[in-house]
Amino acid sequence: MLTRKIKLWDINAHITCRLCNGYLIDATTVTECLHTFCRSCLVKYLEENNTCPTCRIVIHQSHPLQYIGHDRTMQDIVYKLVPGLQEAEMKKQREFYHKLGMEVPGDIKGETCSAKQHLDSHRNGETKTDENSNKETSEEKQEEDNDYHRSDEQVSICLECNSSKLRGLKRKWIRCSAQATVLHLKKFIAKKLNLSSFNELDILCNEEILGKDHTLKFVVVTRWRFKKAPLLLHYRPKMDLLMVKVTIQ
Predict the structure, then answer these.
(1) 195 burial class (0-12, 13-18, 19+ CB within 10 angstroms)?
(2) Which Pfam families does the entry mention (predicted)?
């Protein structure tokens, strides 16, 4: 099988952000044209524009932020192609949280701890048999499976009812993973209110309907950036569009 080596320079144009000219971090793709940028760069750009920075196609006239999405595949490719990029980004994020005096999220802190334990075991000359190693690996995997995203960055939310047709939640204050989506919240509310379908609900932030695939972290960054916690969300029955026919006599 023939293989051909490709220099990183030759593919830089495909893995860099057009807005900052750096390698893609938290890669986010415009659903309309599939052009990809750093999430922070794109969100900042779309605060004052509604077109794609590359092809200038109109993403959406009034709510362009609802038509972009995290591109995990592209981000994985970038991290694999660029040596040390992921480690450098994790280090920057940890330093950022320390500088603000905030607790480092578990998904960032966890990688540091596991790497440190691995290095310490080698420095102390500790060796493990394959059987013990496999046993510990399976135990760690089981612990991760039972973690239920508790080690993720957390978001505090207040869920308020915005309609007389639905009742309010007994416990409207919740705390969950920042990776949870609006769809997860819809299912949660529907279950608590014994609704036949979660599709009957709309969830709003600042009187704006949220897309079902938006993560809570994305909602906080784009719609609650300079406001204090908790994130205030409202829910109501899904509103059908009424077609009004106007006749001129």
Answers:
(1) middle
(2) RAWUL (PF16207), zf-C3HC4_2 (PF13923)
